[in-house]
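Notebook entry, structure prediction.
Reason for the run: the old model in the group folder had no record of what sequence produced it. Starting over properly, with the input documented here first.
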Amino acid sequence: MGDATLWAFIALVVFLGIVIKMGVPSMITSALDKRAKSIEDELDQARRLREEAQALLAEYQRKAREAESEAEEIITLAKREAEAMEKDAKVKITEYVARRTKQAEDKIAQAETQAVAEVKGVATDIAIKAAEKILAKQMAGQTGTDLLQTSIAEVGGKLN
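New structure, fully documented this time:
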């Protein structure tokens, strides 16, 4: 058995020599190095993707905060504008009511003045006619008529 073992050992040594001579260990090492490099590249890429994802998340969170802040500013501004519009509307309504009240009071005063003038005119006409009748009865002749005309003109001028 010694011979067969020896020949098996020699065959193994020759086989290993051929394998080493052909560069199989360097091929295996090279293949393992390539595999390690590709795994390392994949890990680096995964790390970069994770960092990019975190940066994007942070960016979106910042934008969300900015949008929320901007929305709050818009709401605050809208509330201020609404309050200003309300105050302005109240002032305009108050001014409108005051203007309309003043116009109504002016119309009433004008109507009152006109009514007083009309009443004075009618009273004057009645007084003149009554005075004319009374004086016509009391005064007869040309002198009475002249005096009557002068008096009527004088009274008419003073009452109007």
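Summary: The mean pLDDT is 86.
The old model has been moved to the deprecated folder.
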